[in-house]
Amino acid sequence: MSTVLVTGGAGYIGSHAVQALRAADHTVVVFDNLSAGHAAAVGDATLVEGDVRDTALVESTLRRHAVTAVMHFAALLSVGESVRQPARYYDHNVRGSLSVLDAMLAAGVRRFVLSSTCAVYGDPVTTPIDEDHPTNPINAYGESKLVVERALGHYGRAYGLRTIALRYFNAAGADPEGRIGEDHDPEIHLIPRAIAAASGGAQLQVFGDDYPTADGTCERDYVHVSDLANAHLRAIEALDTGAATRVYNLGTGRPHSVREVVRAVERVTGRPVPIEAAPRRAGDPAVLYATAERIGRELGWQPAYVDLDEVVETAWGWHAAHPQGFEE
């Protein structure tokens, strides 16, 4: 079994990956600055608090814990913010990632799984999107991830680093057993914002209702966070057994509009979701959904959650049981 450093492992997707790794008997060390993550989310994994841009601290952590592979989640992830503050995204996402890679090289660690994004594709030319679709990001978030993906190719050729980049679509849901879930401040993802609105919070802002879609709202591919975690587990184990450097999409292949998500939240919670029309956000394509056939063929991954109501049910279960989020 591997000893895996999970950067950003106290965050939403990272903590689910930590849970999957521990369930598979891997040793896990979490590296997180806790700016958006929660110490309570890492369970019994070792937690090192630090910034990934501190290359020396990352290197010393790799050496101290005899780490054999890295999963890299630590990043900023708001599309809208990336348009307004691109410098932050290049600093955290690009410089931070290169810092981790450099620390790995210094410590002799050569296996790396990158948390990437469908935002690398930009406005889709064709749908569903496969891995050979042109990459043309329309926001700094997507561009920052693509820069890192490209760096991985160069690091692999020059230094023998073997990597898998996972381009996932919209992460959603929560641990089905209710142990961990999504707790951001501020919350930027649609499903928890809709649940909050249904629970008496602020009206749900719908950003744009004039897109060229069936109901005028954006369409996205909502892939369950536990399925994402399983894909990361498969990726790290594939690298452990000699898999070559690859890029994979993670999605269900089923697009759902904002209004469809709202209706699903209303069905699951039994409550209305008050909505408020808002202008489009800069950098938001109208439609994004995936084909994930490549990772199915090569790593055997298939999403277990393909029904939108099932995804929402797991999110609702977490939020209903933890109305204040993680208690720390």
Count the beta strands: 13
CATH level 3 topology of the domain at 3-172 and 223-250: Rossmann fold
Oligomeric nature of the chains: single chain
Dominant shape = globular
Total helix count? Answer: 10
Per CATH, the architecture of the domain at 3-172 and 223-250 is 3-Layer(aba) Sandwich
What level of helicity do the residues show?
Answer: 25-40%
CATH top level class name of the domain at 3-172 and 223-250 = Alpha Beta
Q: What is the straight-line distance between the termini?
A: 31 Å
Unreliable runs:
none
H and E order: EHEEHEHHEHEEHEEHEEHEEHH
- The computed structural class is alpha/beta
Determine the strand fraction and express it as a percent band.
15-25%
Spatial sequence of strands, sheet with the most strands: 3-2-1-4-5-6-10
Give the integer mean of the pLDDT values.
Answer: 95
Give Rg in angstroms: 19 Å
Q: The biggest beta sheet, please? A: 7 strands, parallel
CATH-assigned homologous superfamily of the domain at 3-172 and 223-250: NAD(P)-binding Rossmann-like Domain
